[in-house]
Design a protein that fits this description.
The chain is mostly helical. It has five helices and two strands. It is 50% helix and 9% strand.
Amino acid sequence: MSEEQVSTAPRQRSRAEADQLAAEFETSGLSRREFCRTHGLNVSTLDIYRKRLRQARSETPGASRWVAVDVASATPAADRAATSGLAVVLAKGRRIEVERGFDTATLEQLLSVLERN
């Protein structure tokens, strides 16, 4: 085959390979674009792999997206009422904290940005 006849068709990956790439991306800490550049795939392909993996995980018997939450307080009830808010600890140590009366639109924008990466 001459150089002009070399196929540029996308590489076909097995389901296991695709799932592995999606899982590897989730723990990589890289942006989608950086990850795809280093692994030789299109961002849209990675998005398909990630969506398929999320669906498979949610369909797995016994799988749950709920997590245990420990509620602890070191401050008296009167102090808590004045400062009560919400804290969410995400993967990779990310933490989101909001105080009472926070702007929900800003939080929604933040979550949207985090979910894209």
